[in-house]
Amino acid sequence: MLQCASSPLPSSLTVKPRLLRNLLLPILLLLLTLGFGYGGYLISEGAGTRALIETGERQLELHARGVESEISRYTYLPSLLELESSVTRLLLDSTPAHRERVNQYLEGLNRRAGSRAVYLLDTSGRVLATSNWQDPDSYLGEDLSFRAYFQDAVQGRPGRFYGIGSTTGEPGYYLAHGLVHGGRIVGVAVVKVKMEALEERWEKARLQAFVSDENGIIILSSDPTLRLKAVRPLSDQDKERLARSLQYYWWALNEWQPLSRQRLADGVEAISFPPQSPEGDGHRPVSYLMQSRQLNDTPWNFTLLTPVQDLRREAMIHGMLAALGFAVLAFLLIAWNERRKVIATRLAAREALEQANNALERRIAERTSDLRASNQHLREQIRERRQAEDTLRKAQDRLVQAGKLAVIGQMSTSIAHELNQPLAALRTLSGNTVRFLARGRLDVASSNLEAINDMVDRMGRITASLRAFARRADDHGQARLGQAVDAALMVLQVRLKQVPVNLHRDYPDARLAIDQTRLEQILVNLIANALDAMSSQEDRQLWLEGRTEGTDRYRLVVRDNGPGIPPDTRRHLFEPFFTTKPGELGLGLGLTLSASLATAAGGNLSVAYPEAGGTAFELYLPLLPDMEPPA
């Protein structure tokens, strides 16, 4: 038995454990490597998702506030019409004259506000006046009583509505306000706002976002293919109701449904779409992180889509690095174990590890250097852009000031020419006076001195008009119309001699709520433009006609019988730097400055084209509150 117990084991029994260990160890290491890689992938994906959510929340808040700001900037505009007396007169007495006046007022208001359209409805929903009254697709006479915004406004509630126009087929956001007179609603003012600027900003920023309304319909989107799609299933009753309301005109409201969606947090979902989406990559579904927020003062929702392909790609890289790290660690452990057996193998493994580390550090250093260079380049671009913006702003300010200086320069040249004759006469009279005094002819010397005194007074009046025109003025003050007209004609007396006109004055004198110098500047610009327009014709007629409107406004018309303004240039009249004169005769700032001065004083400047020909500029200014309107 002792001999049997001490007998050696068969060779087959000693080989099997080593073979088993050599087979199981690689499998175990492979499984652990995959486990570490998958764990690193999950950790990186979770951290990246949280970072994307935080970044998305900031972008969501920023762009949502941008949408709210774009909506709220026009909320005051409908109620503004309640302050316009001509609007109330049209609602109470719908005459062609009242309608034409309100059409022109709405056209100017729409142009200055930058909205799509401003129009006025009576209590039956019929459009009485509109800013696009001259367009082929004008709203004038349209029956819009079926619109929800009209039904809300006519009952005294604020009308807020997004839809596609039944006349033009253009989408827009409608703001309506009931106009009250005598304690009752006599009409509804509506402003249609263009929202395409938001989509353009999103596209420029490469932002994937959309806004859905209370019906779940996408009304604004950086991706045009998503517009007017439903973000939630619509029942047959909903589809029939929306089709009957014509809110979206005749568009087919298809549903926009992702392949899958997973709720991650409140207002945050992970969604995916088929690969045929424009953002698709190969045959893989396109995944997004979707974050939504309700907009203030509206039932709309702003949704931000953040692609997660880069996040998953980075998570996969991190997982591979984790697996690689574990593999390196396992390799180090195996190398350390083999160190006792083969020194050469240990040295080779160490050298290989050092090379790998050096390569990794070199790549990290190169990447860090590239990032620093990119950041420096970006800072330089930002600094250059800010400098360019400051330079542009200063240049614009200098050009605006140059408009007034150009007028003063032209006047100075004319006045210098006007002063040459009195100065020459003064030189002759003064010399003759000395000789007459020496001869004792005191009567002739006295008459010469009186003539010299008259010429000095004349030169003083000329320079006083230039000095008064050149001085700075405030937005507020008071002015006499008759005095302003006389001062403007005094400034332009040389032009009037060169281009004689038949001047017709038909206006009662009035005190207006505008600085005297600014009123003179407006009149100089308007009369000078009329003289330029009639310079090439023999019959020159200039009318100055004025009258009071109501108790608080004064209307002055400067009309000529010139060739008029071509239709293709009429819409550019009040644009800065636009002029039909040669470059040496004007900068294109006269009408722009005149309109700005009138607006700053609480009035406005508009243009009309009489059927008899010529051009008529209409200047509306407020009367002083404490004065009686002229008879």
UniProtKB/TrEMBL annotation:
Transmembrane feature ranges: 315-336
Segments forming a coiled coil: 343-405
Compartments (UniProt record): Cell membrane
Signal peptide, first to last residue: none
GO molecular function: ATP binding
Alphabetical UniProt keywords: ATP-binding, Cell membrane, Coiled coil, Kinase, Membrane, Nucleotide-binding, Phosphoprotein, Transferase, Transmembrane, Transmembrane helix, Two-component regulatory system
Location of the Histidine kinase domain: 414-625
Enzyme class: transferase
Pfam families: dCache_1, HATPase_c, HisKA
EC number: 2.7.13.3
Reactions it catalyzes: ATP + protein L-histidine = ADP + protein N-phospho-L-histidine
Transmembrane keyword on record: yes
SUPFAM superfamilies for the chain: ATPase domain of HSP90 chaperone/DNA topoisomerase II/histidine kinase, Homodimeric domain of signal transducing histidine kinase, Sensory domain-like
PANTHER family recorded: C4-DICARBOXYLATE TRANSPORT SENSOR PROTEIN DCTB, SENSOR HISTIDINE KINASE
Protein's name according to its UniProt entry: histidine kinase
Organism: Pseudomonas triclosanedens
